[in-house]
Structure formats: C-alpha cells, structure tokens
Amino acid sequence: MSTDTALPELTPTTALSVETVQSVHHWNEHLFSFSVSRPDSFRFRSGEFVMIGLQGDNGKPLLRAYSVASPSYDEKLDFLSIKVEDGPLTSKLQKVQPGDNIYLGRKPTGTLVADALLPGKRLFMLSTGTGLAPFLSVARDPDIYDMFDEVVIVHSVRRVSDLAFHDELAGKLADDPLVGDVAQEKFHYVPTVTREPFHTTGRIDALIEDGRLFAGLPSAHGFNPETDRIMMCGSMEMIKSLGAKFEEMGFPEGSNAQPGAYVIEKAFAG
C-alpha cells in the first residue's frame, strides 16, 4: 500500500473481496478511471454493476454501485468515477494509487445487459457523464456484434475533457483483441459536448430531434421500435425524459425477467 494515501488495511467478508488497485488515470479535475485486480471466481455479464468501496470513518465498509467498464473477458476490472470533494466515498476513492486496496462486491447485477433486450438490428447506448462506463464493457463484448448490425455509443458531456476514452472509441476499438476487426464495420461513436465548442454540440434529445444522432450511421433514419434496441445510463433527467419518449414511440421497457426494447440503469456512484 502506498504511504501517502494512508488508507487502512481492509479485510475480506462473505460479501466483499479485497482487491489491489493496478492503475489510475485522471482525465481532469472531476473525472478519473482506475483498474483493480479481478478474483478468479468473479463472473459478470457485460453491462453489470458491482459494489465497490473503502473503509468508512466508522470502520465499516463504505460502498457504492459502479458499473464495470472492462469487458467480461478482461483479466482486470475497470471503473469510471466522478470526483466529489465532499462525497463520502469519492472524496477518498479519487486519492487511490496503484498498490492500494479496495473492497469489491462478490455479486454483480444490473439491467444493462443483452439478456434484457429483444432481438434487433441496431443497438443504441445513450450515456451522460460516467454513465458511459457499462457501455465500454458492452461495446467490447463479441456477442453484441453477433446480435446487432450496428452498435452505437452516444456520450454527452459538459466539457471536451469529460470525454473519457474518446480516442479508443473514436478509433472504433481498433486495438481490442476480440472485437477490433468487426467493430471497424459495426461500431459507431457519437460524442457530444454541451458547454464548450466541439464538432457536435447539444444534449442527446436535441441530436435525436434534428437527426444528427443518426447522420453518420449506415442506416440514417430515426428510431424504430421494431428493429432498434436502446440502453440508457447517466443522469436521471435524461433517463426519465427519453424513457417517456421511447414509451410513447412504442418501446417497451425490458428487464432480466422480461426482455424489452429499451433498458435503463439506476445505480450510481457518489
């Protein structure tokens, strides 16, 4: 454990393993990502989240839900997080360094998974901020490219520096060992910035309304509930407003028990 973070030693429990931080990347003063060791017994579906955390001031585990950002076949587990100065967990988590330990829940879960969607032709993953995380996992899942002809990540942020993993996504995941080739044909990335100049600006709903969201796709048409499938993760404002619109358009919400045309995730880090 690094000495300057002075984090306490952690003890595994029946619900939590203790993992080692392997790398940390600070995108800007508000956003960072990090990788931790993965237990041999840890299995998850691309798009699921898990509880992670540190020891709280009361000596007990302080946990929050984080989507796994790495694909299910990766030997490590990646996470994407905001930095909240007075956040109970993120105020401490943003200071972790390689060699530090964190808690990792043993049971991942979530609805942003292929199992919760009906078969379709296009998959749209609509995200704001750190809501991008589960889609980084889904987009690198080989099975997704067997299920869909087009796989689209839309990422809306306030500032250009908030576009985490921009270069990898703009490069169509070319360096990925399993999906790099097929992603060149099927994967599409639509970043948009709301508060700074960028080649695409405006919120996701605006891009849908004026058609810019679809302009660069092989099938440049609006949403069709018969063939399009949608995942949403990010701000509750975005999820509620777009969810209502999709319902009006005839998109039924899906779940693990009852697959549908769109799914959302409500678990957030804080």
Automatic annotation (TrEMBL):
InterPro entries from the UniProt entry: Cbr1-like_FAD-bd_dom, FAD-bd_FR_type, FNR_bac, FNR_nucleotide-bd, FNR_type-1, OxRdtase_FAD/NAD-bd, Riboflavin_synthase-like_b-brl
MF-aspect GO terms: ferredoxin-NADP+ reductase activity; nucleotide binding
Protein known as: ferredoxin--NADP(+) reductase
Cofactors (names): FAD
GO biological process, one term: cellular response to oxidative stress
E.C. numbers: 1.18.1.2
SUPFAM superfamilies: Ferredoxin reductase-like, C-terminal NADP-linked domain, Riboflavin synthase domain-like
PROSITE patterns membership: FAD_FR
Oxidoreductase as UniProt keyword: yes
Catalysed reactions listed for this entry: 2 reduced [2Fe-2S]-[ferredoxin] + NADP(+) + H(+) = 2 oxidized [2Fe-2S]-[ferredoxin] + NADPH
The family this protein is said to belong to: Belongs to the ferredoxin--NADP reductase type 1 family.
Organism: Sphingomonas parapaucimobilis NBRC 15100
